[in-house]
Write a sequence for this structure.
């Protein structure tokens, strides 16, 4: 969608750069292309003063000019330097570009530790991410960095499994360098073993899912954190787990949070990366993933949509020779992986389809139902999400009741939409009406109506 430019094409800035078209814009700022293939950041005084007062930019960095009755500030940049909104950037093409952005994040956080950066403006020339102070839901810095690296995908740099699949060109070692350059603590340093003298041990949190949070703490994290005590009683490592439940119930979200907390490398088996129509090929790929996970142990191996590989061998296509071979490969490898300190987690929407041999204890000891959230769980998640935002005294009970039984993504949408509506209305905080309007704009999405096939 074209951006309505503040300045006419060919307008000359004080340093002689001339404008072309505006390419990105906000309430108090605009980025325009210049004739020399560079860019210029044009800012209204209110935002320029906020940045100066916060110490994010020095007054000498700006040029000032008059356009009609408006006094404006401008900062120009060459074509070799990044100048763009963080949420509207192309992804980097080299490690040096990624390191430059990470350094800008670190330098910004050294001055301003709290302002959200997902709507910031990246000015490589200044090594800064300049926040625009919007009312949008704050996004953690690890997700801001991950989204920028991945070209907009909302993924944390600590979500090892997902970020490595999106950044195969960068590699895990280079990604670690970028994370350190950004000043972001590696997740491993936040995991169950991370304790420094006089500090409290890290606590695993899973907002809106207290029962599943408690399960992970008791059956995974406590065993890892107190390995010597458990080993003395014959328990060497957490056993494999199956999470099952309807689509949208939050299985993937929960596993990603656990992987982030542990800080271990993670590996994934799914239909996209493993499935093959060729006999023996799928079994070979499964074996390769298990081998990699054991080599990098302690690690996490996630079997996503496990019904695609581990369907009952007595059911239909499951009885074919190569399907029996695939199930057999899993039967052999899962106990071996657990002994090698690989945490195996399977996820499925169709637990009833899973082969009974896979379900036996000794392979997957724990089968956990992850259902749609209850009213109490939705209420807990809403309180966590709204605690990060400026909000008036509101009654969340009717919101929690309306969202109960719906995907957790609906809860997140209502929070973000209520912030957007409050900002649109010119408010400085979220009120009850904004939340109700957001809820009304997010009706439940049922399954698509069945198509009838027949003859007239």
């Amino acid at each position: 969608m074209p951006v309505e430019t503040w300045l006419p094409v060919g307008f000359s800035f004080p340093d002689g750069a001339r404008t072309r078209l505006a390419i990105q814009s906000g309430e108090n700022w605009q980025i325009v292309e210049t004739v020399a293939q560079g860019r210029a950041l044009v800012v209204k005084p209110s935002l320029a003063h906020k940045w100066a007062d916060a110490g994010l930019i020095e007054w000498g960095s700006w040029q000032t000019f008059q356009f009609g009755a408006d006094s404006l500030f401008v900062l120009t940049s060459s074509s070799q330097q990044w100048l763009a909104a963080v949420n509207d950037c192309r992804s980097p093409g080299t490690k040096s570009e990624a390191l430059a952005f990470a350094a800008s994040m670190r330098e910004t956080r050294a001055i301003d530790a709290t302002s959200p950066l997902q709507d910031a403006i990246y000015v490589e020339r200044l090594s800064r991410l300049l926040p625009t102070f919007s009312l949008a839901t704050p996004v953690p810095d690890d997700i801001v960095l991950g989204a920028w690296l991945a070209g907009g995908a909302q993924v944390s740099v600590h979500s090892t499994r997902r970020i490595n699949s999106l950044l195969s060109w960068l590699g895990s070692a280079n990604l670690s360098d970028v994370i350190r350059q950004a000043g972001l603590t590696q997740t491993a340093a936040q995991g169950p073993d991370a304790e420094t003298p006089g500090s409290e041990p890290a606590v695993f949190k899973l907002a809106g899912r207290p029962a599943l949070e408690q399960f992970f703490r008791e059956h995974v994290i406590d065993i890892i954190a107190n390995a010597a005590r458990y080993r003395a009683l014959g328990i060497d490592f957490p056993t494999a787990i199956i999470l099952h439940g309807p689509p949208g119930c939050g299985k993937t979200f929960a596993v990603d949070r656990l992987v982030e907390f542990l800080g271990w490398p993670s590996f994934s088996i799914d239909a996209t990366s493993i499935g093959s129509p060729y006999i023996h090929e799928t079994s070979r790929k499964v074996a390769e993933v298990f081998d990699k996970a054991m080599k990098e142990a302690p690690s996490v191996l996630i079997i996503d949509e496990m019904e695609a590989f581990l369907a009952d061998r007595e059911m239909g296509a499951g009885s074919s020779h190569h399907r029996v071979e695939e199930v057999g490969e899993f039967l052999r490898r899962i106990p071996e992986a657990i002994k090698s300190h690989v945490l195996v987690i399977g996820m499925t929407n169709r637990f009833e389809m899973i082969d009974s041999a896979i379900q036996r204890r000794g392979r997957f000891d724990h089968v956990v139902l992850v259902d749609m959230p209850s009213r109490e769980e939705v209420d807990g998640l809403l309180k966590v999400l709204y605690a990060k935002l400026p909000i008036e005294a509101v009654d969340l009970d009717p919101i929690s009741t309306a969202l109960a039984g719906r995907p957790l993504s609906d809860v997140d949408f209502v929070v973000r939409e209520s912030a957007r509506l409050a900002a649109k209305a010119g408010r400085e905080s979220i009120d009850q009406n904004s939340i109700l309007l957001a809820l009304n704009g997010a009706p439940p999405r049922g399954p698509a109506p069945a198509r009838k096939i027949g003859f007239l």
